[in-house]
From TrEMBL:
Positions of the Cytidylate kinase domain: 3-203
Lineage top rank: taxon: Bacteria
EC number(s) from the headed UniProt entry: 2.7.4.25
Similarity remark: Belongs to the cytidylate kinase family. Type 1 subfamily.
Keyword NADP: no
Single GO MF descriptor: dCMP kinase activity
Biological source species: Edaphosphingomonas fennica
Keywords recorded for this protein, A-Z: ATP-binding, Cytoplasm, Kinase, Nucleotide-binding, Transferase
Protein name, as recorded: Cytidylate kinase
Length: 206
């Protein structure tokens, strides 16, 4: 069983994907981490996240980087959004994501193009969304919790809008729901309600 969970930043898709994985007993891959690792590696190498040669070289990042807390920062997210618009970078990360999806018992993957590109034959596809304001509020609360209280709400909202625009207008695998995805708007749901709804949407599709 393959479950694809796509959606914009801070929509709740990561939490929902992990909860689905726990519920159905499947491994889970947060594919955003791969793009974040490439973005952080480019910056560490002194390269430009919009330069194809720099970004491609960074695709050879060491796996240990995937566990680095630096990947969670807004700087990493912005660099990820830039490298991920480069088709050669996306191509370099496809095999790894498909191999994860092809594990014997199945898997849950979350990202932007799982239902459209990585696993178009997934058994269940969810597209998780929420208004930019709600997502910025969640991301800002999380940053404050992590001690980054020097960043304003307006700045987080502007970053979210910029990332949405870049992710949905790029030519390579733009952020969009697959035609057969179930839409889940979490704007006015708490996380428990969103997870319950996600489980029932997946069960409906099996
Ligand atoms: O989901 P997360 O915020 O960690 O993703 C960081 C960035 O990586 C996104 O803004 C997007 O540009 C890119 N990404 C992508 N395709 C994926 C996952 C993430 O393009 N499957």
């Amino acid at each position: 069983m393959i479950i694809a969970v796509d959606g914009p930043a801070a929509s709740g898709k990561g939490t929902i994907a992990r909860a689905l994985a726990a519920h159905f007993g499947l491994p889970c891959l947060d594919t955003g981490l791969l793009y974040r690792a490439v973005g952080v590696q480019v910056l560490r190498d002194g390269g430009d996240p919009e330069n194809e040669a720099d970004a491609l070289a960074a695709c050879a990042f060491d796996d240990a980087l995937l566990a680095d807390p630096e990947l969670k920062t807004e700087i990493a997210g912005a660099a990820a959004s830039r490298v991920s618009a480069i088709p050669a970078v996306r191509a370099a990360l496809v095999a790894r994501q498909r191999a994860f999806a092809a594990q014997p018992g199945g898997a849950v993957l979350d990202g932007r193009d799982i239902g459209t590109v990585i696993a178009p034959d997934a058994d269940a596809k969810l597209f998780v969304k929420a208004t930019p304001h709600v997502r910025a509020r969640r991301r800002h609360d999380e940053l404050v919790r992590l001690g980054h209280d020097d960043i304003s709400f307006d700045r987080v909202l502007a970053d979210i809008r910029a990332r949405d625009l870049r992710d949905s207008t790029r030519a390579a695998a733009p952020l969009r729901p697959a035609d057969d995805a179930a839409l889940l708007d979490t704007s006015y749901m708490d996380i428990d309600a969103a997870v319950d709804r996600a489980i029932s949407l997946v069960e409906d599709r099996l």
